[in-house]
Write a structure and sequence with these properties.
about 15% strand; 5-stranded mixed beta sheet; 5 strands
């Protein structure tokens, strides 16, 4: 007795529904990881702590200026001198009035370096400035 069917099995072909699911999940993953990669944080900056500090919501288009302990300023991974920083800030203020800027200065940074960047922001007519602080360890 032969219990096997003599019919040939048809090829299923390309399944589009699982492929759409996989592509959608990959898209969600990359969009989420891109948001976190935009938090331009320099590893060698130790932020000062503040007990009353709060974690603010990131503003769209916010520019992060990292000021290292030696006074050098880093924006978008590029080390900028005073002239190029002034040019960039004036161009941003001209295109986007009310441009938000976040200053992240190392706690060992001299006060004069922070004031120098604040002065450049003021000359470029940027007034929406925030300062980054860390949460104190308990």
């Amino acid at each position: 007795m032969n219990f096997r069917k003599q019919s040939k099995q048809e090829s299923v072909g390309f399944q589009i529904a699982p492929m759409i699911d996989v592509v959608f999940l990959l898209l969600c993953f990359f969009v989420t990881s891109q948001i976190f990669s935009q938090w331009e944080t320099e590893i060698d900056i130790t932020l000062p702590t503040a007990k009353t500090g709060q974690t603010p919501q990131r503003l769209p288009g916010e520019i992060i200026i990292n000021i290292l302990a030696d006074g050098s300023a880093i924006v978008n991974g590029r080390n900028l001198d005073d002239d190029s920083m002034d040019t960039m800030l004036k161009r941003l203020a001209g295109v986007f009035p009310g441009q938000p800027v976040l200053l992240r200065a190392d706690k060992a940074t001299a006060y004069e370096h922070v004031i120098k960047v604040l002065d450049l922001c003021r000359q470029a007519d940027i007034w929406n400035i925030s300062f980054a602080t860390g949460v104190p360890e308990e």
